[in-house]
Amino acid sequence: MVSYRLINFGVRPMALPLYEINIQANEALKMFHVPGMAISVVVNDQIILSRGYGSCSVHEEVPVTEKTLFPIGSGTKAFTALALGQLVEEGKVAWDDPVKKYIPEFALFDLEATEQLTVRDLLAHRTGIARHDPLWFFSEMPRGAVLDLLPHLEPACGLRETFQYSNLMYAVAGIVIERVTGRSWEEVIADRLFKPLEMRDANFSIQHLQESSAFSFPHAEIDGVIKQVPFRNAYPVNPAGGINANLVDLTKWLKFQLSQGAKPIVQLQMFKELHAIQMAVPSSPYDNPEVYHVGYALGWFVGKYRGHDSISHAGDIDGFSSEIFFLPKEKIGLVILTNSSSDGRYVISSLRNQIVDNYLGARDIDSVAKAQEMRDKNKQRLEQAFQAFQAPHQEAVCALGDYLGSYEHPAYGVVTLSEEKNRLFLAYGKVKIPLSYKEEDVFAGQVRDLLVYGINPLMDFSFFRDASGAVCKMEIPFEGFRSVKPITFTFKRCL
């Protein structure tokens, strides 16, 4: 039987045939090579759809359901912002107080910014500090160690000058919550948000995720094959991306957002503040010219969807891609969770646009074709990069011994260069990378962890010499794909 829901937007009712979504969802999984996903649609406070599609794993047929847990990555940020909003209402925190008021030892590379940076700056990504995700991504960064590392990270721009997305700064925001409440960030979120919203299955660690009765495994398409990849531990930056949740719980969270805080967790004025733009974001389309970000609020991106105001946040972490998206005035919202970090975003954009366009009565754009075109272009660029990398490399014209030894950065720690079977190897944290000679004092290598996100893993590792001709430092463009300048490591000792 075909199921329809009639939704009145004040102009005319729009019928949404759910069987169409089912067909579109299953086709999207096949088209974009994603094992499984879960989708909920909320319109005018009604749950129109809440169900899973596909499988939790490529290795066994365990269906995704609305109870299947997924890591939501940066969808966590809105929870951290809301918890701080509660503390602001209670008079325990002020948005524009300096962070040093709550964390006396807080320090940045720039002394003036250290004194001026506020709690609001942390949440609005306007601190001037670039992401520096390799600090926790490639090494075992202890929780709270971010405070020791920040003084050694040169700013990418001035305070409040340019949007600089930063997971590290949300980790600091979590520390503010802990210092003010005397409790862990996890305890505060569970007690103050999960409990009143009745989010019964949400948790904060991969261990708890895997101990649950229903959870999805992480996947990515690597070298043309859909593979199950290891879970990524986000504990060092949990306030930025550590929540695991299912569709049932996140639909409650979505309804709370659409209701403008119907539950008495925060007052309406605070709710509006959390959704208000705090920092402009360069207005470049991220899916198509009709869908783009305008600014960042407190834990949310604010944008435009075909001229309609939108609020959203994507979440990407190894093996998973998700999005919480809503049009506040139209009272339309979606949660889409996928178990692929390389291709889940294409499923999300195509389905989100098809579903929302249906309710808006606009079907003039082929969202599937657009997503497919974007995916094909990215895959083609990646393939071209690999073809160039696999071209024969010339033999090094200098002794590999010139480069051997340890190199150090005060925040990033130690990189070690060693020689094995006449080849140079670079070790940093959890990764070990074989290097190929490219040109004088430049070697090429692959940081293959980036393939999990469909990102080009190829990097040039550049060495520099002092006046005597001895190698004195090296540069690694860990986040060159984001146009972030390389990290400089200074030579310390020979092996």
Rg measurement, Å: 24 Å
CATH topology-level name of the largest domain: Beta-lactamase
C-alpha end-to-end distance: 72 Å
Percentage of β-strand residues: 25-35%
What kind of sheet is the major sheet?
9 strands, antiparallel
Percent range of helical residues:
25-40%
What structural class do you assign from the helix and strand content?
Answer: alpha+beta
Q: What does it look like?
A:
The chain is α+β, with helices and mostly antiparallel strands. It folds into two domains: 4-381, Beta-lactamase (3-Layer(aba) Sandwich); 400-493, Beta Barrel (Lipocalin), CATH 2.40.128. It has 14 helices and 23 strands. Strands 3, 4, 9, 10, 11, 12, 13, 14 and 15 form a nine-stranded antiparallel beta sheet that branches. An eight-stranded antiparallel β-barrel has the order 16-17-18-19-20-21-22-23. Strands 1-2 form a two-stranded antiparallel sheet. A hairpin with a 4-residue loop joins strand 11 and strand 12. Helix 13 packs antiparallel against helix 14 (367-389). The chain is globular. The model is unreliable at 1-15 (pLDDT under 50).
Question: What is the structure about, briefly put?
Answer:
With 495 residues, this protein is an alpha+beta fold. It has helices spanning 18-31, 77-89, 111-116, 119-124, 134-137, 146-149, 167-181, 185-197, 206-211, 238-241, 247-258, 268-274, 344-360, 367-389, and strands at 4-8, 13-17, 36-43, 46-54, 70-71, 219-222, 225-228, 244-245, 279-280, 285-288, 291-296, 301-305, 308-317, 320-327, 332-338, 405-409, 413-420, 423-428, 431-439, 442-446, 458-465, 471-476, 487-493. Helix 1 (18-31) packs antiparallel against helix 13 (344-360), helix 2 runs parallel beside helix 7 and helix 2 packs across helix 8 (185-197).
